[in-house]
Amino acid sequence: MGDQGAATSATSQTTTADLSTQVTAPVSSPAATVSQVQQVLVTPTPLSENSTQLVTEQARIIAAVYNRVAPAVARIDVSGGLGSGFLIDNNGHIVTNYHVVAAAQGGRVLVSFTDLFQTVGRVIGADPSSDIAVVRIEQMPQGATPVELGQSDNLQVGQMTIAIGNPLGQERTVTNGIVSAIGRTIDEPGNSYAIGGAIQTDAAINPGNSGGPLLDGDSRVIGMNTAILSASGTSAGIGFAVPVDLIKKVVPALIQKGQYDHPWLGVQMRAVTTYEAQQRGLPSAGILIEPSSPDSPIRKAGLNGGMILTAINGEPLTSADAIISYLELKTSPGDTVSLSVVGENGNKRDVQVQLGSRPSLGDFPQS
Question: Does some domain include residue 80?
């Protein structure tokens, strides 16, 4: 998310423009008087009673979530940059993005909470592939209750999202929006593997929000704000969060042993539409797969490429994003999965593949 370098002194420039409103009277009518123009400009359209109630209820929910969660949201300063994090237990464990703490000298970062509480934290585990890291502090801030981790597998497009973090150094700022899409992947610079199952939201996310929680209306963490898609480098209404279901898989391993092993199928993938399949004489729409390396699990299972993958363990999957998300969230190294494939001759079959452990970064970037 480019948090490194987003210093607390960051300022923003606001450009204002003269906005004028034209009132045009019908040709057959006298021109509008000055008083009529003023009335048009200053008289707001009243909200209906139902709309007012909805706005009031939304404000109440946001305030309640903020009051519950904000004391557990940390500001993390590292070598001139900053990010966010959130306290997950009473043992001083804080979850944040790996890219927030990647430049930490000696694994030490400065951690700040409310009421001027500040202490030094130590990075005890990190997983660049999922952009997740864990920082531990020895002293706990008074009055900070650890966040509650929710679920991301039951999210619905359109449901409320609330983000809390430190955008551009503005501590514990809250913004809100909706779940814009689910099952996205995050492709970050320097990360050879895409992050699966990501949540897309239009809640305003800016540099400094990275590592902060994305919450539902019940104060539960549903994701960790991680990246934005923007030409300007600031919020354009397209933000992405690592899903909490992935966080719940990765973080315990980071606390216990400092690293996490990802499942690996070892494929290169490309989506094939029904139109392309017809035009090229391919046997089916689906995901065209090829082994990504000589020792990939699918090659070991006898699949040498040119196959169309349509499902894993009986679950239809229609995009590379969906395959990455499925493997990341629902499987582990050593698991055996059933791949439903269609061969060049149109024959359908199920192939059993034992997943490996993902090679180090720099190998093939998909799964």
Answer: yes
Q: Which residue numbers are catalytic?
A: 99, 131, 210
Domain boundaries, position 129: 69-137
**What's the one-letter identity of residue 161?**
T
Q: Is residue 7 part of a domain?
A: no
Between 202 and 32, name the one with better pLDDT. Answer: 202
Torsion angle, alpha carbons of 326, 329, 333, 336, to 10: -40
Tokens of 43: 């008289």
The 10 Å Cβ neighbour count of residue 79 is: 13
Q: Beta strands 307-312 and 315-316: pairing type?
A: antiparallel
Instruction: Reduce the DSSP state of residue 125 to 3 states and report it.
Output: strand
Last residue of a domain, one of 239, 256, 273: 256
Residue 94's DSSP bridge partners are: 87, 135
For residues 357 and 158, give the distance between their C-alpha atoms in angstroms, rounded to a whole number.
35
| pTM of the full structure | 0.82
Please tell me whether residues 193 and 224 are part of one structural domain: yes
- Of 218, 236, 256, the residue at which a domain comes to its end is 256
How is residue 183 written in tokens? 């099952």
Read off φ and ψ for residue 40, nearest 5 degrees: -60, -40
Task: Tell me the per-residue pLDDT of 161-182, one tens digit each, with 9 for 90 and over.
Answer: 999 999 999 999 999 999 999 9
- Whether residues 207 and 290 share a domain: the answer is no
Residue 357: which H helix or E strand, with range? Answer: strand 356-357
User: What CATH number is attached to the domain comprising 228?
Assistant: 2.40.10.10
- Tokens found for residue 261: 């092993």
Distance, in Å, from the CA atom of 332 to the CA atom of 14, rounded to the nearest integer, reads: 48
Report yes or no on 10 lying in a domain.
no
Which pLDDT does position 320 carry in this prediction? Answer: 92
Q: Is 34 helix (H, G, I), strand (E, B) or coil?
A: helix
Farthest CA pair distance, the chain: 84
Q: What are the Cα distances from residue 17, in Å, to 11, 14, 73, 88, 311?
A: 20, 10, 37, 45, 53
Does residue 194 lie within any of the structural domains?
A: yes
What integer pLDDT is reported at residue 27 of this predicted model? Answer: 30
Angle 336-337-343 (CA atoms, 0-180°, nearest 5)? 130
CA atoms within 13 A on the CB side of 144: 27
Say how many domains are in the chain. Answer: 3
Regarding whether 207 and 307 lie in a shared domain, the answer is: no
Q: Are 242 and 195 in contact (CB under 8 A)?
A: yes
Strand, coil or helix: what is 57? helix
